């Protein structure tokens, strides 16, 4: 899920001849980036396609041409970050080493929070307001995936690789701990200053989680 500024997209289009498909992809990226910023600041109700178009430096008609409605654009912003987050859960497989799987997941989620902070805040705002557009996803796809991870942790516990833990609550802890660096950036930057947040945070959180889960080599 690549994000480019309006200037970067314009430069890419002007740099070389592009197919219609490539131009559409770049224009969608340009609009999605602007939409994520506007939705993160104003919420769904406060955002307008006009403000999104202004930030993307495009006519308002272009936004409607590529995405139709504000609701469709909002859902696309949410679906892209959620698909990316869900894909990272593939590391939780019975055949994988628990320590390596947890460390990789934690580091990747913190890096995603650093790379896509506004998208993370759009998701947080959606959930805070009752998840009107995500209820079905949360109750089906996300719930199913977490239940699968629960089975993985049960298998690891049976094999003596970890202590018995409630994997569902563990995932809530991991999400809260990793996404806080995006959702509460003002707080983390104020307290931590210029520290290398992604590396330090991943190392510290990994140590805490591995000890808490009783992970054994």
N to C succession of SSEs = HHHHHHHHHHH
* Average pLDDT rating: 90
Strand percent estimate: under 5%
Number of domains as seen in the coordinates? 2
* Overall 3D form: elongated
CATH superfamily of the largest domain: Tetracycline Repressor, domain 2
User: So, CATH architecture of the largest domain?
Assistant: Orthogonal Bundle
- Count the DSSP helices: 11
Radius of gyration: 20 Å
Poorly predicted regions are none
Residue share in helices? Answer: over 70%
The tally of beta strands, per DSSP, is: 0
Name of the CATH class of the largest domain: Mainly Alpha
Give an account of the 3D structure.
By secondary structure, the protein is mainly alpha-helical. It has two domains: 6-68, Arc Repressor Mutant, subunit A (Orthogonal Bundle), CATH 1.10.10.60; 75-212, Tetracycline Repressor, domain 2, CATH 1.10.357. Helix content is 77%, strand content 0%.
């Amino acid at each position: 899920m690549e994000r480019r500024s309006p200037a970067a997209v314009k430069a890419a289009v002007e740099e070389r001849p592009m197919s219609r498909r490539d131009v559409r992809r770049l224009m969608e990226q340009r609009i999605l980036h602007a939409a994520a910023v506007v939705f993160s600041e104003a919420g769904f109700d406060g955002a307008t396609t006009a403000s999104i178009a202004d930030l993307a430096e495009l006519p308002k008609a272009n936004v409607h041409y590529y995405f139709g409605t504000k609701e469709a654009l909002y859902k696309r912003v949410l679906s892209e970050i959620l698909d990316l987050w869900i894909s990272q859960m593939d590391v939780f497989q019975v055949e994988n080493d628990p320590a390596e799987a947890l460390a990789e997941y934690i580091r990747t989620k913190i890096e995603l929070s650093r790379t896509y902070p506004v998208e993370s805040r759009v998701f947080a705002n959606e959930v805070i307001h009752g998840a009107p557009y995500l209820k079905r996803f949360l109750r089906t796809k996300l719930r199913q995936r977490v239940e699968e991870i629960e089975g993985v942790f049960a298998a690891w516990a049976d094999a003596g690789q970890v202590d018995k833990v409630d994997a569902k609550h563990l995932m809530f802890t991991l999400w809260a701990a990793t996404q806080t660096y995006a959702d509460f950036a003002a707080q983390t930057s104020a307290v931590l200053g210029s520290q290398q947040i992604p590396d330090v945070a991943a190392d510290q959180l990994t140590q805490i989680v591995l000890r808490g889960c009783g992970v054994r080599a």
